[in-house]
Amino acid sequence: RLKEFLNKEVDLQLSTLPDFEERVIDCSEVEQLMNSINTIPAPCAPVINPQAPNAATGTSLRVCWGLFSDDTVEYYQLCYKPVSNERHGDEQTEYTLKVKETYCTITNLLPNTQYEFWVSALNASGISPPSERAVYVTAPSPPTIKTKMIRSCENAALVCWESRDINPVDSYVVEL
């Protein structure tokens, strides 16, 4: 019997058209509920630390910063560029790194060069204002001793060297 029933062609027609009511849905309760949910605010601006002693080599810099609030931070955006004394210094290439910690070591830099750094904090709600900018300097590269110009006598020695740096070096320490 089931097989016979399923093989029959059934024509369903409604004798009357369905009568739907137009309803206005009040979403004010949902809106109140959504507004009452605590959202995480965008973080405050981090504070970048000045360059610490021994935080630089000829090709790297260790940059540190802090966040002096209880803001939730997913990651930091560290930006930097070389400082230029030329008039077109604003056209310098800016580099951006995504960092999870409150410090970062940047490598492949030029010796005895100033770099400007700033950092922002990010979370699901947005990005903080950038920190104040801080200038860090890489260490100079070691000088090259001119071995053919070395002279010595019983009580003295003359040692000559030349700097391989583009920027001038403030001073040298000679160790014996």
From TrEMBL:
Domain Fibronectin type-III: 46-142
InterPro entries registered for this protein in UniProt: E3_ligase_FN3/SPRY, FN3_dom, FN3_sf, Ig-like_fold
Transmembrane segments: none
Highest rank taxon of the organism: Eukaryota
Annotated Pfam families: fn3 (PF00041)
Name under which the protein is recorded: FSD2 protein
Organism, as annotated: Todus mexicanus
Phylogenetic placement of the source organism: Eukaryota, Metazoa, Chordata, Craniata, Vertebrata
Name of the encoding gene: Fsd2
